[in-house]
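Handout, page 2. Input:
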Amino acid sequence: MTPPAAGSPTPPPPPTPTPRRLPWFHFVFLTLLALTGLAGGILMWASSLRQRPAPVIIETSPPTTELPVYATLRQSLTATERSGQTVTTTALRGKVWVAAYTYTRCPRGCLGVVATMLKLRDEFSSEPRFHQVSVAVDPAYDSPEILKNFAAAAGINDTDAWWFLSGEQSSLRSFVTNQLGFAQAIEIPPAERLSEFDTLGHDLRMALIDTEGRLRGYYEVQNEDAPTAQLHQERLRADIRRLLEEK
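Output:
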């Protein structure tokens, strides 16, 4: 597959729907992680296949070639981190970072995405140039306080190199769609919702950005096909390592 020209991200159509936080969310989160976040996400995806097109698998380059450059970020995002501090993505220049959407009351694949990011956190915890960014799909509900509680329930510390961003919805979605190249979040029809909180469908892929602010890969770590999801997780880890080793 020929990657889009730099500067104009046109990654393939993403998976779909995902959503919001329940009163028993802490219990659900930890339980699903214990049973493997990926498995939980796959089961949810299977129940919603009828409403989404077949996934498009983005192949990353083999180790013998350079990673593709899908686009260069032209604008930065300024948002509120779960700590209450204002941060901007320009501060990530010089770092290799991974970005994904976050939806704390999501009954679909979000917990599997977070589980993957937890594994990355553990693997690259000693690498000061590695960072992760989770952007709120529904900032009207997922305030910094909610995101802080969500992160704490997942065992994510304030000292981890991992931002959970909330703020103005239009600003967050514009950055995720126009800069990161994710699909726009959509409203799920009432008849197709898995629960009362299942109102928003969004991109479940993860994006990899290099030290120069260039998009180098997209990964379907929550693909409904388990072997494909595992393959994308392994490629993401390998691609992160390759970018960190670049001079």
